[in-house]
Amino acid sequence: MDFILYAVPFFFVLIAAELLADRWRGVTNYRLADAINSISTGVLSTTTGLLTKGVGLLTYAFALQHLALFELSADSVWVWVLAFVLYDFCYYWLHRMGHERNILWAAHSVHHQSEEYNLSTALRQTSTGFVLSWIFYLPMAVVGVPLLVFVSVAALNLLYQFWVHTRHIPKLGWFEWFFVTPSNHRAHHAQNALYMDRNYGGVFIIWDRLFGSFQEEDDNEPVIFGVTTPLESWNPVWANLQFYAQLWADARRTQSTWDKLRIWFMRTGWRPADVAAKYPMNKPDLTRFRKFEVPLDRRQQIYVLLQFCVYIALGSYLMNLEPNLPASALVLGWGAVAFGLFVLGVALENRPWALKLELLRLVSNVPLVWLAPMVGLWPASAVGWVGLLSYSLLSGIGLYCCRNRFTRLAS
Ligand SMILES: [Zn+2]
Ligand SMILES: [Zn+2]
Prior knowledge:
The chain has helices at about 5-25, 30-65, 75-100, 100-110, 120, 130-135, 140-145, 145-160, 175-180, 180-190, 205-210, 235-255, 255-260, 275-280, 300-320, 325-350, 355-375, 380-400, 405-410. By secondary structure, the chain is mainly α. It starts with a helix and ends with a helix.
């Protein structure tokens, strides 16, 4: 059962509650561009997941059919309990390797790039994790956990992890010993040396205590959130490519063929000696840490926020109807979401070409609405064109309201 779809409204209700708590306590844990960037990576990840989840499901089903040692029944509550615990054990190793190996960190780093820590950070998810993550769950198929149970406990595990992404909840006493909590997960999101590569559990923190990767949040060492190679971008597409691009650049630059191959599988941060000497990368001095920020006019912020809501709606629409949509419709929907979120990222970064790209995005809705009924994304009707016309008109008015800012940037 996919519980994530049903949880989406609760995510937004709880984010609203956290924003109120921020206001109540007079603290600022949210910045608009950061939250939009985090949720954008989440929308991109779930939309990409509609096209790629077959990788995890097919490999699991294949392994279950050919490698299962036992035949476990989905009717037994104990199978569910075992599967829930076993899933978290597998997750621990995937997550740990996700931090310790270059190729896996390239996928997982997306979750850590935010320099804020709030419930929107929980939605920051990778779009490329599907390539390798399935390998870590094969032991569950070998044990014989049924596919339905596997998919359900995977969703429950992910849902559990949502609530721990907040700065409002302090340490929770005895609960800290057994479970992942806001406090020990805050430490996991830190870039301070003390907390680096610690607290990998998804639901249970006992794995970290068992395998020596636990670190308690220390009041004397305030957490600085983010990664040591800062993303410095509000673009969700670039967020997914940043570390792959760095590895690719290093692999191309090195003279050693062996290094070109092994860089992908070496410990995170490892670089070929000749490349590291010629193109040194220094770790930032955290005493002078400054969060990434791009000044943006208020009207422009509101414009991007409203346009962003359209993509949340489109992403939810795709998730909702996914079982009934043909692959061609999912590809078109994915393309529209990825391009749209890319353009909004450019607008948040205040790039000189933001206006031209935004106009291109609005124009690109014409072929989108034309193609949608052909590929089965939605049925052919006049409503699509009327909707597009109204949307374009409103967007035009919005752009007109932002004109001074955009003109200044474009010049
Ligand atoms: Zn992590
Ligand atoms: Zn997290």
